[in-house]
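--- STAGE predict ---
source: upstream dedup step, 1 unique chain passed
mode: sequence only
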Amino acid sequence: MAYTPKILALAGSLREGSYNKKLLKIAAEGAEKKGASVTIIDLRDYPMPFMDQDIEEASGLPENAIKIKELLWEHDALLIASPEYNSSISGVLKNTIDWASRQADEKEKPLSCFRGKSAAIMSASIGVWGGLRGLVHLRAILQNIGVLVLPEQQTVPLAQEAFNEEGRLRNSGRENRIADLGGSLSDFVVQLNK
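--- STAGE serialize ---
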């Protein structure tokens, strides 16, 4: 039986009409076409307080941080669409990564839900760089916690003009590149598990 990669997909945005959520769906479709099983989550469904060691020491990890960690353990790879906030990543995405990086108990190995995972990253932004500066930070964070980030990445500049009413990219070539990024992640995970 052929190996089926399990990919967890998330956008670093809470906004309902987020360009990055639209982008994520296109990349997820590309991964599914290559045979991956993709789970798309919305960080809005996993609210957490700001990372605070006082909270952690008083009551342990928040319930939603544990849920995110469990999802990470269950999946082989990550598809992340990250908006750019002030030349970096969004607070909600950083906070999610920070909480998930914490040990739930003393038996858990540090960063165990991240180490050995693969990731593909992308961004849509209303700016002319398409979120590129934020992806530099995201790549550095993920690599530092043991995630192997694919060298290729995709950006969509001027996102307010790039999508049609159905949430598809008006430029078919760009849409194909986003879908191909998801497909590349699926192919990469298959190769790693041969």
